[in-house]
Every structure is written in C-alpha cells, then in structure tokens.
Amino acid sequence: MTDEQFRLLGHELVDRIASLLASIRTHPVTPAESPEVVRAALAATRVLPEEGKDPMALLRDATGLLLEHSLFNGHPRFYGYITSSAAPIGMLADFLAAAVNANVGAWKLSPMATEMEAQVIRWLAQFIGYPADCGGLLLSGGNMANLTCFLAARAALSGWDVRKQGVAGGPRLCVYASAETHTWIQKATDLTGLGTEAIHWIDGRQPMDVDELERRYRQDIDQGYQPFLVVGSAGTVSTGAVDPLPELAGFCQEHRLWFHVDGAYGAFAAAVAGAPPDLKGLQSADSVAVDPHKWLYAPLEAGCALVRNSAALRDAFSYHPPYYNFDVEGVNYFDMGPQNSRGFRALKVWLSLQHAGASGYREMIQDDITLARYLYDSAAENPELEAITNHLSITTLRYVPGELRSSLGSQQTEDYLNHLNQRLLAAIENSGEAFISNAVIAGKYALRFCIVNFRASTGDIEAMPQLVVRLGREVHAELTERPGTRDLGRKESTA
Ligand SMILES: *Cc1c(COP(=O)(O)O)cnc(C)c1O
Predict the structure, then answer these.
(1) Which of 12, 142, 201, 361 stands 20 to 30 A from 172 (CA)?
(2) 237 CB near ligand 1 (under 6 Å)
(3) Residue 219 CA: distances (Å) to CA of 162, 167, 174, 252, 419
(4) Residue 402 C-alpha to ligand 1 middle, in angstroms?
(5) For 279-292, how does the pLDDT look when each residue is reduced to its tens digit (9 = 90+)?
(6) What pLDDT digit, counting tens, does each position of 375-401 carry?
(7) CA-to-CA distance for 309 and 155, rounded, in angstroms?
(8) 143 C-alpha to center of ligand 1: Å?
(9) Is 193 left (phi over 0), alpha (psi -120 to 50) or beta?
(10) What pTM was computed for the model?
(11) What gap in Å lies between CA 296 and CA 210, rounded to an integer?
(12) How many Å apart are CA 125 and CA 117, to the nearest integer?
C-alpha cells in the first residue's frame, strides 16, 4: 500500500465510522438475521482468493458487511448481557495502538506502552480504592483476569511447588464461591487441573452466606481438603447483587485464605457515592478482577487483574528461558501473566480514563445506576409489569397480563409466564427496538436490563415499559388465541 493510498483509505474509513456514530439511533439495534442470511451476505463458502484485490474496494466491502449485519452494542437501546458501547476515543486508540504495534510482553520492545500500562493499572486501582502499589496487568477480559488471579492464589497458598508438581503434589485443593458466580470459576478449576468438583458452592440465602461458608470450611478441613480461595462477587453477572465483601474479607483473614473479588462488572461502582457499602470490601481483597471493556467503555478486549502483593503474579507466572534477554529495570509483562506476546490494550483505557476523567466516569456510572432504578420503579407502578430485582445498573422484570395477576404463584400461571416472557424476549430482539437478555430468579424467567451504556437517556428508559407491555400483549394474544402456531418473527410483529 502506498502512503498516499493509506491516507485516502483511512480518511474514508473514519468518515464512514463518524457517520455511523452520528446515526446510530436510527439503526435497528440488531438486524436479528439467521446464520444462513449472514453467511449468504458474506459468500461464506468461497475459497481464499488467489490474487490480491484493491484495498479501497475491500475496505468498503468490509464496512458495508459489518454495518448492515451487526448488532450495535453502542446503540442507546442496547441493554443485553454486560456489554458496553465503545468509547469513540477508544476506537481511535486501537487504531493508533495497531500502528505502533507495540509488543507489550517486554519493556524493551514497548518502552512507552509498558509504562502506560503500568500507569493504567495504578489509575484503575486508585479509581476503585485499591492500593495503588498493587501488581496487575491487562488481559482479554474478565474470564482471563479472574483466571490470572486464581493462578496467583494457587501458587501463593498451595504450600508446595504446585507449578512444578501440579495438583497431585499435595492435598486436595478446594475453593468457595456462590452459585451466582460467573462460569469463569468452572473454567479456572478445569484449566488448572483442580476439576470443577473443587468448587465448593456456598448456597443458602443470597448473597453469599458467611455462616454456611464457615460450616463448609470446617467440614472440609475435617475431610482433609486444603481450601485456599474464597471468591466474592462485586456485582453478580445475572442480577448485579454484591456479596458481603467485608465479612468475606474478615473470614479469609482469620483462616489465611486468599480473598478474590470478581468485580468484572461492578467494581467500578465502588467509586460512586451511592453504591452499596459492601463494595468497599474489595479494598481488602488479595486480588480483584475488573473489566474496562464493561463500565469504562473500552472497546473489546480489555480485562484487568489487580493483585495486592505485587510479587504474586511473577511468582505464579515467570520463567526465565535462556533465549530471553530482557534484564532491564522496567516491567516485563510476559513474566506476570499467561501471555507472551501482548497487544497494546492499555492505550484505549489510558486515553478514555483521561478523556472523561475520574469525575466523568463517576457521573456516567451513577447515571446508569439511576436509570436502572428508574426502570425498576416504573415497572413497579405498571399494572402489567412485575419488578423483580434492582442492583447496581441491572433491573429485572417480567410481563404479567392483567388477568393473571390474581393467580400469580400458582404452578400453571408461573409456567405460562415463563413461556410468555421467553417468547417476549425473542419478540423484543426481533423488533430491533431494543436488546435485552434474561435472568432466571427463583424460578421466574425475567427480562433483564443491564444499563452499561453512556448513550442511554431517560427517554430511552422511559420507552422500555411501554415496549415490553406492547409486545407482551401481542405475544400473549398470539399464545392464547392460537397456541404454538405462530412464529413471532420480526416481520409479523412489526407488520
Ligand atoms: C462479564 C463478567 C465476567 C466475564 O468477563 P469477560 O470479559 O466476558 O470474560 C466475569 N464475571 C463477571 C461478574 C462478569 O460480569
């Protein structure tokens, strides 16, 4: 590519993206197409072209395909899962990062990029009230950040050389987590050879029940287990509930266990004045996982592991092969985590943290929490909606047809409502008017709104009860009139 071509292509691409951002509200949140339709648009089965092609045509083609066949999580009415809009400055950051193409595995290969990452780690820790002299690094997301902390805990507390001898080198290790913990915990126990049976689930009352934890711990000690880790959630993935983190911290201190906090979603709310006071307990954790690609609006991917004892990551990950000659004073991140070559994830976080500033982020996070609360209150006042939960910026609710109010709780009504709301979720998705996901709460299939979205306005949230009720009535009518015979596809529900 010539320099002039690069300039031309780059400008055109930036213009297309700027137009998308300016018009995003007018697009459906998702085209809700089938895999067949998307594959046909791509001509998915054609073979790799033998001859090269004109880059301008290729970029236009790629842009068209992506803009026409993508779900836009940057849409002001996207409230699904915990996926956020990308901050525009983060998009530019990734472009710049790719241009420098720093390999942030070794200081020597990425002097400024490594120092920027170290600064981002300090800033993230400061923002959530964690000691700023902690160790830490950026990873692909919450799963890898939690896994990295898990490995640091295992190396620190197993009591034998578990890195060398593996889990067979000592007593059976086990960990504690509540049933609401994200599935990273299964992956972590599986990948590290402990096996998922090493997770001793603490059930009982939600959030995590410390009396039940104590009981289970004593039983495990009697049975020859070696517990080493307690996982607390700072905002569960399903409902945003916060575990009693200060109590868990005290328990871990007393029994010399590693206290890990999964704050992938909720840890950033610790910076906000009105957040649940239990969040402050993450400040006593041995490690915390946070996800800048959630509430800090970094474009995917950006997760972050923070570890109180800055040597613990090196103790869990470093090897010194003879072919590496990186004995400089700076940090070599390949020594502190699972990756070797590493991309420059830090730049997008470094730029957006400064663009909005700490106060800007506090305000955006507070706004999301306020909107979720507002949605919950609106649902509670609406005779056709049942408000179910509200924690942090996640609200769950369900549609309840007026005539079923009086029979709520009966098995037949509950089964029907679960079916109805499941169909309603699909109808909302197919409408393209909003995107939400679901949660199952005490057997109830709930519609789940997770507001991690700096474009969502009060007006957008005000429209949600109406949307749910309008489509809920349609689905209910179709289910009761002609049960099981109609496909609630997009064309029908908008026709
Ligand atoms: C999102 C989330 C994860 C997983 O993070 P990824 O970035 O998707 O890997 C783990 N735990 C919690 C609480 C989360 O919200």
Answers:
(1) 142
(2) yes
(3) 24, 21, 12, 16, 41
(4) 37
(5) 999 999 999 999 99
(6) 999 999 999 999 999 999 999 999 999
(7) 13
(8) 6
(9) left
(10) 0.94
(11) 31
(12) 12
